[in-house]
Design a protein that fits this description.
Length: 351
């Protein structure tokens, strides 16, 4: 536990307390919300996708007044809008948002929003479940009061753990709030952290032991180097996609994933099923209003350049089979140009 907690502080760029919960990332989100905002309190949610919207769903379930700022899916939150919202709602206890909205592939300017929120009494609470460890996330420097991360993304574990990095400002707020939780009462976790460190409830010890090994790999590579490598994969992936005449959906796109608009005349569901049945390549589709309209390619963690090249090659063949006019090899050639001088991937160290 001690080794893992120190490693997580390194990966998250924080000196704050880090807690480990045995739950999914959504459990971490619920814990962050119910410990910082009292029933009847007000929270601002920067809703720009399925997972940002989840903050609002959780808050309403616990009797919290939610001010939901809707942003077009695939577009980033404007920090100026956050400043305006905080003026309009000075009684807001916290602002909730995301780092990398994995339902759309967009990245938000968490640093700029953190600077704005930091000038108020409100907390800045960030869902970095899919982003931390994949793209730059400097918790302390960016004024993030509660960072929520999941185990199954860039940290390369199965689902089952959530992590919360909590600032002194957040703890002070939690000490004033009557927590609507038992299992997720973070003050109990803080007490056990001081004792052990341990957890107040049965820890998922096998996942924690596995995480210790993963963190050794990540630390030996260097988090800045991993982020830079993911950026290189992102550039290569997007070059390959654009060489096929396809459109990147997110603006600005996150470096942990590439989201692509399904081209006209192609059935998005058939495209994904054919990729998996023909080549074993499983890509994520769109959710809710984006179902059938986009597909998503991850490039972080154990995913390396060969995975990306193989995915692009399979995509070329399946698109051609579905009637999309392309030149075979164009995506792979375009992506390869950006991988010639790329550093070795983390997967090589893991193997």
């Amino acid at each position: 536990m001690a080794t893992v907690l120190r490693g997580l502080q390194d990966i998250f760029f924080t000196q704050n307390d880090v807690l480990i919960l045995a739950c999914s990332g959504t459990g971490g989100m619920e814990a962050a919300l119910v410990n910082t905002v009292p029933r009847g309190g007000k929270a601002i949610v920067l809703s720009a996708g399925v997972f940002a919207q989840r903050w609002a769903h959780i808050g309403r379930a616990f009797g919290i007044e939610i001010v939901e700022h809707q942003v077009a899916w695939g577009r980033a939150v404007d920090p100026a809008d956050v400043a305006r919202l905080l003026v309009q709602h000075p009684d807001a206890v916290a602002v909730f948002g995301t780092l990398m909205e994995s339902s759309t592939g967009v990245v938000h300017d968490v640093a700029a929003i953190g600077e704005i929120v930091g000038k108020t009494k409100a907390l800045w609470v960030v869902d970095a479940i899919s982003g931390a460890g994949a793209i730059e996330c400097r918790t302390d420097d960016w004024g993030i009061d509660v960072l929520v991360v999941g185990s199954q993304k860039a940290l390369m574990l199965p689902p089952g753990l959530a992590f919360l990095a909590i600032s002194k400002k957040a703890w002070q707020q939690m000490d004033r709030v009557e927590c609507q939780a038992f299992y997720f009462n973070l003050k109990l976790h803080r007490a056990k952290l001081r004792e052990g460190p341990t957890t107040p409830w049965t820890p998922a010890h096998t996942l924690i032991a596995a995480l210790a090994e993963n963190l050794k790999i990540m630390q030996s590579e260097g988090i800045d180097q991993l982020v830079a490598y993911n950026r290189q994969l992102a550039i290569a992936t997007r070059a390959g996609i654009e060489a096929l005449g396809l459109t990147i959906f997110a603006n600005p796109p996150a470096d942990g994933m590439t989201t692509v608009s399904v081209p006209d005349g192609v059935d998005g569901g058939v495209l994904l099923k054919r990729l998996e049945s023909r080549f074993g390549v499983k890509l994520a589709g769109g959710q809710m209003q984006l179902k059938g309209k986009i597909f998503r390619i991850a490039h972080f963690g154990m995913i390396d350049a060969l995975d990306i090249l193989g995915t692009l090659s399979a995509l070329e063949i399946v698109l051609l089979e579905l009637g999309w006019s392309i030149t075979l090899g164009s995506a792979v050639a375009a992506a390869s140009q950006h991988l010639v001088l790329a550093e070795p991937a983390l997967v090589h160290h893991a193997n």
